[in-house]
Amino acid sequence: MSESNPIDPISQPNQAMESTNQEPTITEDRNAKTRQLLGMKGASAGETSIWKIRLQLMKPITWIPLIWGVVCGAASSGNYTWTLENVLKSALCMLLSGPLLAGYTQTINDYYDRELDAINEPYRPIPSGRISEKQVISQFVLLLLLGYGVAYILDLWAGHPVPNVLLLSVFGSFIAYIYSAPPLKLKQNGWLGNYALGASYIALPWWAGHALFGELNWKIVVLTLFYSLAGLGIAIVNDFKSVEGDRQLGLQSLPVMFGIQTAALICVVMIDLFQGLVAGYLVSIHENLYAAILVLLIIPQITFQDMYFLRDPIANDVKYQASAQPFLVLGMLVTGIALGHAGV
Fold this sequence. Notes:
Elements: H1 11-38, H2 50-58, H3 63-77, H4 84-112, H5 114-120, H6 133-158, H7 164-180, H8 190-213, H9 218-237, H10 243-249, H11 254-258, H12 260-284, H13 288-309, H14 317-342
GO molecular function: chlorophyll synthetase activity
Pfam family, one: UbiA
EC number: 2.5.1.62
């Protein structure tokens, strides 16, 4: 007969209290691991799986706008139809823009930012010592070569006489390299670096999606480069988490150049103003309904800017992005559909 445990009226509440106290710790640990895997701020440094570390280097959270950019480009072509072949083409183009070339961009950026990350984000894979520099180099070279291979396949599939998607991939990877690597290292200049980043996230995947299903023309190129000025504002948001390291290493990010509050104001004005001007262009080509929808999508962004970002851009940068950016990317799709409908 087994011995029963006596009920201890004192230890039981203590045990319940310990269990309650442990729950937030477990939740925080899970959140930190998720952030680590996605390559977000506030991660933990405990991961040991080399494949998860490699994935963290590629920052999957950053793939989303590039994948979405392909969708916008396909819409602006005016030729996309829901066939199995077109779905497979667009999926392959999303693989190219997101995991492969955005993964390359983020990996090479981490490689050249290892000293800066040691100050700002020491949990990142390279400064934490969880992956060697040689392994990082082999990763971004492989991602680049795979990207070029997929781009060439897409050109063959689309029957392009000139390999447009491959040429865009080469151009985009070159911009990514000079953004991160010396001697140019565009990110040292707050204006040039952030515009290069904004254009890479808006214009380049848009061009790829448009070229895959239609004829890429100068109007689409100019308009998306103009739209990328709103992307410049989004790119500035990412600078606030690195202010201390930027100051120590002499990098001229906008928060360093103008101060936290002025840079935050510049950021939101860029985001709102250039979306509004794109809406004005849609009116000029008689796409009034789409212009009105775009304006309606700007309003919640302004609301979240006031609620979160302008009040404390350093503490609330992630919260602001999670709240406001879905409306910005929906506006991109509305613009793409409008351009396709107008036959621009």
